[in-house]
Write a structure and sequence with these properties.
The chain is an alpha/beta fold. The protein contains nine helices and ten strands.
Length: 336
């Protein structure tokens, strides 16, 4: 197949790009990257060697400054979509009805370059945001740009990683490409469990919770349970799958492990109390990377606080790869 040129918008640390590169191999080449977060840029640069700089805020970049491309990859953030104004199609969507929604930066760039494929990933809730109107606008905008749109919610746990993570995936083919045979991938592997991704012992002491913090979490959950809420920390069994990892708040505390393998009990940081005697620890950034399907060759160069945020915001690479393989089939068949 003729080599395709891709752009990576809202690139994060490059998970969507990695999935497409695993599927397409040398048949795809990235020619433009946009990511505004400086820490994410550092992780991206540590893992991808490009002959150009990473562009920053996409809202300040003219579509004319983006090189020609065949595939648009975009994990755009879900922002509120204003429904003020009348529905007059794409021009009104962009100029009035949904100003400020970052999806429309994807739309304006693709309107200029008309790529063969537009690929987007977002949270599952996007489909029901504003009673479904938000998603209708997204689908309708892509259709008005001249694309046939396919969407489906897939769960990462069905594609070789032990994480319960449902996301909406959108694949849009330009109308002159016969995409009638496109289907989202069926599950490839739902057998993986947390025990498959834990790092070898000993795990550094800093990942083990203090006894004071464990007690704080227990009191916190008890307060919520008393009010009828299901909110609180959660210890996962090694034979289970993880809950969806997220970038902040209780993201780490909802995927705690009991790990009684040998480890140092001397605190590595200033903590209240002592290292807990129950072996309760949070997962490491490398384990989070494995939950997202990143290979161990993927470099994690920053402090943990940044890595947890980046990996919680990222995509599950094996799901992206499985979808990209289906995209590749369509593009290969149309070139045959």
């Amino acid at each position: 197949m003729k080599q395709l040129k891709a752009i990576d918008l809202f690139a994060g640390i490059g998970g969507i790009r990695l999935g497409f590169e695993e599927a397409f191999g040398d048949a795809i080449s990235t020619v433009f990257v946009s990511e505004w977060d400086e820490h994410a840029q550092k992780t991206y640069r540590a893992n991808f060697s490009d002959g150009f700089d990473i562009a920053g805020d996409i809202t300040k970049i003219s579509e004319n400054d983006v090189p020609a491309f065949d595939v648009c990859l975009a994990g755009f953030p879900c922002q509120a979509f204003s429904l003020a104004g009348q529905r007059k199609g794409f021009s009104d969507n962009f100029k009035g009805m949904a100003r400020g929604a970052l999806f429309f930066d994807v739309a304006r760039i693709c309107a200029e370059h008309k790529p063969k494929v537009i690929f987007c990933e977002n949270v599952k809730g996007l489909t029901i945001h504003d009673k479904g109107r938000t998603f209708d606008i997204i689908r309708g905008t892509l259709q008005e740009l001249g694309y046939t749109v396919y969407e489906q919610i897939l769960n990462s746990r069905d594609y070789g990683v032990p994480q319960n993570r449902e996301r909406i995936y959108i694949v849009a083919f330009r109308n002159d490409i016969d995409s009638t045979g496109f289907k989202f991938p069926t599950p490839t592997d739902d057998t993986k469990r947390i025990g498959d991704i834990v790092e070898n012992a000993p795990i550094p002491t800093k990942y083990y919770l203090s006894d004071v913090y464990v007690e704080t979490l227990r009191r916190h959950r008890a307060r919520h349970e008393a009010k009828g809420h299901g909110f609180g920390y959660e210890i996962r069994d090694w034979n289970d799958v993880a809950g969806a990892i997220v970038c902040g708040g209780m993201g780490r505390e909802r995927n705690l492990l009991i790990d009684n393998r040998e480890h140092d009990m001397t605190p590595a940081t200033h903590i209240k109390g002592s290292v807990n005697l129950e072996g309760i620890r949070k997962m490491t950034p490398r384990e989070w990377a494995r939950l997202q399907g990143y290979p161990d060759t993927f470099t994690l160069p920053l402090a943990d606080v940044h890595l947890y945020k980046q990996l919680g915001n990222s995509v599950s690479v094996p799901v992206i790869k499985a979808i990209a393989m289906q995209v590749k089939k369509i593009l290969e068949s149309t070139e045959a």
